[in-house]
Amino acid sequence: MEYHDDEALSPSASSSSAANNNNSDQFDHQHHLDDDDARVAMIRAIQNEVELLERAARHDHIVSYYGSMITAEHHKLALVMEYVSGGSLASIVRRQKGLRDSVIRAYGRDVLLGLQYLHEVCRMCHRDIKPDNILVTPEGRCKLADFGASRALERTALLKTCVGTPYYMAPEVVQGEGYDESADIWSFGATLFEMASGKPPFADISNGMAVMFRVATLGKLPDIPTPNSTSTSSSSSTNPLLAD
Fold first, then answer.
1. Annotated active-site positions, please?
2. What is the pTM of this model?
3. Are residues 149 and 46 part of one domain?
4. Contact 105/96 with Cβ under 8 angstroms?
């Protein structure tokens, strides 16, 4: 079984902010063009990402795509994206160790509007929804980012590749049953879980494969704790999204 995390998704990729390991600081996504085989595979992946970005980046809750270029000095292909200075949702959640219910509702609404546009208008599945891939503007609005794992949806065929980040992957993705855009909604539910609790589901498990096994076999995810004055409404609204 294959799965991709942030590094495995593009093993020869780097960005101008790689040292910070923070998507919110990423202005361009640079791909090294190394040997011939890697170059062909990477170019195909980049072509797919660019095509999807061009389709998706016309919405208030999706990060804007400005274009691409080959850098003259290092011969890298750079995707030039909107700079969102407010930081990633992940950094905000980790800093505050969980968010207030009112903030969860506001952020959740923005993410759902972005997903609705992706699914219904662009006919695509993001496949890696998680706090690291949601950027927050200084005004407190959320934007979906990082479309490296995304794929177009077909009306007559399900997606098959096991791709994403284990803590946020839907059971049908892990099990290889075939899936559609509903897998993004599971990932959104796991993201709400993290917003409420400060940690992703199954944060006590450090091994990605072990997390995938738990998701595939348990049939449910844990109830959401409510620290930092979050109310029971956040728990009750999120748990249905995480139902098998």
1. 128
2. 0.76
3. no
4. no
